[in-house]
Amino acid sequence: xxxxxxxxxxxxxxxxxxxxxxxxxxxxxxxxxxxxxxxxxxxxxxxxxxxxxxxxxxxxxxxxxxxxxxxxxxxxxxxxxxxxxxxxxxxxxxxxxxxxxxxxxxxxxxxxxxxxxxxxxxxxxxxxxxxxxxxxxx
Length: 138
Prior knowledge:
The chain is mainly beta. Helix content is about 5%, strand content about 30%.
């Protein structure tokens, strides 16, 4: 099944982890990059699915999450970095990715996951000079 990617995005191998989401165009600082999409699930279901090696689940609020591995648009391949170039913003139940700084064509799009369903021992592989060593801020 082929993903329907947002314009300006492509998926390819990442030096951070597995596949990554890359820019096919310049994104100016403060510009919306894309919206996260996937299957809407309860947070109880998200916790049930938490045993997977690779999680593609983002919380919307205290009750709902989106599982990008089911019905996602490629944004579920955005990898973690301790020095990210974008951030997530939730607006009226929609999860948006916004550029923290100018993002150049061909650059991997990254966010700081900060808090995930992964164990606090899940190691970070971002390679940033200020890498904290884990994907969760503990």
